[in-house]
Amino acid sequence: MSAVPLPEQRTLTTLHTVVLATEVLSQAGIPRGRLLEGSGIAEADLLTPEKFISHAQELRVFANALNCHQDPALGLYLGLRMHVSAYGMLGYSMLASRTLRDALQLALAHPDLLGTYFRLALQDHGDEVWLSAEGYRYAPELTVFNTELCLTSLLTVVRDLLGESVRPRRLLLAYRPPLHASTYTERLGCPVEFGAATSALCLGPALLDRALPLADPVSCHNGLQQCQRLSAAMSGRDDILELIRRHLANHLQEARGLDEVARHLHRSSRTLRRHLQQHNTSYQQVLDEVRYDKARQLLKDTDLPIYLIAERLGYSETASFRHAFQRWSGASPSLYRG
């Protein structure tokens, strides 16, 4: 098996969604132990709000929940119960924001505190503003569940912030209608369009400029500072290590060495090596992680032939890429693509 950690194993999040899921489903008679099985999360951890878990652990709980509850609309059900208070200091800071737009932009600037698996954005589209969710790359069997949970929890937050049960103009979903498609309009009270180019809550622009009833600029500023500290502590990241990852992701075809990367980052090679050693990793391991992430995305989301994917990852020979991918994933690129 691969020695390269997957993105969902590297990325940390809070326990708030797992706590909600176990609380709601335990009331339905499902033991917490069954929901946590195989996740590495103990029941005692649910009482420890400062504990962080990986996305992989959270995904395991979600898979267990679907298997135990047997309700295909579980994502909708949980998302509508994910109130703004569940997000701790981030939720508090959103409540103290000046307008709904300010609150949502604050949240989108801290995706790690939201615990989202998506790239979230506010986009103006004519007479609508879209709160979109794109870029999901984790467990494909949980795509519908996680999209439902993401968008309905955002709707719940919008309602909590404004203090009223507003309805979106419509809901766009980038997948075909599931068997429980009729449940969407029933629970959300708005038109739903499946097979869209992106998944998004569509809101009226005037709604975004509504003043929030609990706005307080001083509290919002103090809360934002605490969010920034929590975000840094939770990610456990080193800025330089993240700079290396981002640079490599944008220049994979050039397959630069550490010296060249250091020059572009305006750092010395010695500084980069020291930071890599402090994180018990190496330049080659980080390069492998970035290549593996990109390879998985290209294999699943595109029809590019294997030799072109190899080129995009900086391999001069396709065979070298095939051998590397086999080492990372335990499967050939063709088999992984399915």
UniProtKB/TrEMBL annotation:
<feature type="domain" description="HTH araC/xylS-type">
    <location>
        <begin position="238"/>
        <end position="338"/>
    </location>
</feature>
<dbReference type="Pfam" id="PF12625">
    <property type="entry name" value="Arabinose_bd"/>
</dbReference>
<dbReference type="GO" id="GO:0000976">
    <property type="term" value="F:transcription cis-regulatory region binding"/>
</dbReference>
<dbReference type="GO" id="GO:0005829">
    <property type="term" value="C:cytosol"/>
</dbReference>
<keyword id="KW-0238">DNA-binding</keyword>
<dbReference type="InterPro" id="IPR018060">
    <property type="entry name" value="HTH_AraC"/>
</dbReference>
<protein>
    <submittedName>
        <fullName>AraC-type DNA-binding protein</fullName>
    </submittedName>
</protein>
<keyword id="KW-0805">Transcription regulation</keyword>
<dbReference type="Pfam" id="PF12833">
    <property type="entry name" value="HTH_18"/>
</dbReference>
<keyword id="KW-0804">Transcription</keyword>
<dbReference type="GO" id="GO:0003700">
    <property type="term" value="F:DNA-binding transcription factor activity"/>
</dbReference>
<dbReference type="InterPro" id="IPR009057">
    <property type="entry name" value="Homeodomain-like_sf"/>
</dbReference>
<dbReference type="InterPro" id="IPR032687">
    <property type="entry name" value="AraC-type_N"/>
</dbReference>
